[in-house]
Structure formats: C-alpha cells, structure tokens
C-alpha cells in the first residue's frame, strides 16, 4: 500500500538543522499521521506521497516549505501588566495569545524594565530542515480518523 490521501503512515524520523544538530527524532516511537490533512509540514508530506513500507529517504526542506519564513511583524513589545498573575516572568517562557488569526503561541524573547518583547514566530520558522525518514507502516484510515483529521492509536492522537 502506498501513501496517499486518507491513509495513515507510521514513520521514524530524525530532524536536523542546517548545522547538522538533531532538533527532533521519533527515536523508536514512530509518528503516525493522516496523509492529505496537513498534519505534517508541506515539504515533508509532499515527499512522502507514493512511498511505501520500508522506503527510506533524506530530504532538505527550505523554510518556506517547512514552518515558513520568520515574520518581523509577529515580534511585539508589550507592557508587563499584560501578564498579570504570572510570577517570575522570564525570557524563554511561552504563552498562548489571542490574535486576529486565532490562538497562537508566543515566546518571551526579552524583558527591559516594564517592557516585554514577545515573538509569535514558530520556533522553527526561518530554518531549513533536513529529515531522515523511514516508512514503518501504511494502512487505510478509519472513518473516525478521517472525520477528526488525524491518526489514532500508537504514534497518533490520544484522546
Ligand atoms: Zn481524533
């Protein structure tokens, strides 16, 4: 069975950045994803199409096909009273923030006096990413998985 829309594939992967540092890896716990539902970054999902159990490949994906380019407009400085109720505000903390595009995650990147700089870019935005992938299994998705838009079971979404 080949990977195509509405199939669930299990993959082992190792993700490295342009410097060759490992940023993420499945490490023996294969990731299960539902193909054709944007569960993965576009560059990786496109490459997986048509692959089958046992296939291995390595691909380098430009930022635009991964988590997108960094956008300066997503970096904002706000007064620290926006974080009322948060103790020990510190660089590196992440928060869920409401914006016109819905909820998204922001990270505090600087604090100066009562001014806090938050960055709403994805942590991997702007990075070229290399994936080493092995396809472990491919199966048909269940009706429920297609309805939910993600894979269930081992390596997939746990409800
Ligand atoms: Zn579900």
Structural overview:
The chain is mainly β. The chain folds into 2 domains: 7-67 and 125-148, Roll (Chitinase A, domain 3); 72-119, Thrombin, subunit H (Beta Barrel). 8% of the residues lie in helices and 40% in strands. The protein contains 2 helices and 9 strands; from the N terminus they run E-E-E-H-E-E-E-E-E-E-H. It has helices spanning 42-48, 143-148; strands at 7-16, 22-25, 31-34, 56-61, 75-79, 94-99, 102-112, 115-119, 129-140. Strands 1, 2, 3, 4 and 9 form a 5-stranded antiparallel sheet that branches. A hairpin with a 2-residue loop joins strand 6 and strand 7. The chain is elongated, with a radius of gyration of 19 Å.
Layout of helices and strands, plus pairs?
Elements (H helix, E strand, L loop, with lengths): L6 E10 L5 E4 L5 E4 L7 H7 L7 E6 L13 E5 L14 E6 L2 E11 L2 E5 L9 E12 L2 H6 L11
Main features:
five-stranded antiparallel beta sheet; 9 strands; binds zinc ion; Chitinase A, domain 3; 159 residues; 2 domains
What characterizes the major β-sheet?
Answer: 5 strands, antiparallel
Unreliable sequence segments: none
CATH topology description of the largest domain: Chitinase A, domain 3
What do the pLDDT scores average to? 94
Number of strands: 9
Q: How does the overall form come out from the CA principal axes? A: elongated
N/C terminus separation: 27 Å
Question: How many helical elements?
Answer: 2
| Structural domain tally | 2
Q: Report strand %.
A: 35-45%
Q: Which structural class best describes the helix and strand composition?
A: mainly beta
Radius of gyration: 19 Å
Which ligands does the model contain, each kind named once? zinc ion
Proportion in helices = under 10%
Known CATH architecture of the largest domain: Roll
Class of the largest domain in CATH?
Alpha Beta
The arrangement of helices and strands along the chain is EEEHEEEEEEH
């Amino acid at each position: 069975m080949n990977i195509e829309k509405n199939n669930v594939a299990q993959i082992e992967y190792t993700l490295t950045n342009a410097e060759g540092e490992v940023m993420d890896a499945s490490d023996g716990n294969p990731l299960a994803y539902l193909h054709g539902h944007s569960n993965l970054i576009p560059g990786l999902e496109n490459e997986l199409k048509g692959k089958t159990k046992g296939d291995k490949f390595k691909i380098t994906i430009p930022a635009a096909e991964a988590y997108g380019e960094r956008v300066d407009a997503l970096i904002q400085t706000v007064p620290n009273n926006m974080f009322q109720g948060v103790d020990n505000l510190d660089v590196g903390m992440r928060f869920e923030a409401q914006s016109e595009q819905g909820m998204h995650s922001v990270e505090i990147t600087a604090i100066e006096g009562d001014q806090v700089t938050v960055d709403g870019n994805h942590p991997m935005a702007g990075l070229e990413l290399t994936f080493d992938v092995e396809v472990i299994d491919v199966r048909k998705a269940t009706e429920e998985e297609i309805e939910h838009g993600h894979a269930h079971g081992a390596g997939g979404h746990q409800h």
